[in-house]
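JOB MANIFEST
job_type = single_chain_structure
chain_count = 1
residues = 193
[input]
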Amino acid sequence: MPKLCDLQGAKGSWSHEYENPFVTATALHALAEARRAGAEVPEAVLTRGARALLATRDARGVFSYNSQGRGGQIEGGAGRMPYLEFALLPSGQATADSVAAALEASFKHHALLEAVRKYDDHADAFHNGGFFFWYDQHGRALAARAVKSAASLARQREIVASIAEIDGCWVDSHELGRVYGTAMALLTLKACE
């Protein structure tokens, strides 16, 4: 059983500083990949994780920022919505339609993410922050690939290509820097293939 299973909280979520949907989605995705590679992942761990993640999503498809409550402002949650929906696909708690709706919302509000891409903290009125930029872009690409949305994949490729620095690297916040930004941009482009 992967060590990641041991890190699941009592309510089914995973945490970094606190339990939250984006770490829970990342853990569910990692465990789904581990299972595909042959690792033994208990179904109960996946079920509890999916249930915990689903409990943070409201009727509009917006996930809360932490594991308390549901939803929030779509302008502040749109970036991560596609990846969180993607993480729910294996459990059957998301559908191609819910992923497509999340992709649409994410692209609609992309300018908010772009505006704070190089800032380190929650930089706008909706609490978007640069440290989530590439997490959101990569997650968007994975979600688009999972539902075979050629239009979304093409749009995501265009976004990544349009923000390369003059020397060919990519950046988000200076806190995470060029190496991280470039690695995540390349992973995002790879996911768009």
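[summary]
The two ends are 31 Å apart (CA to CA).
The chain has ten helices and no strands.
exit_status = 0
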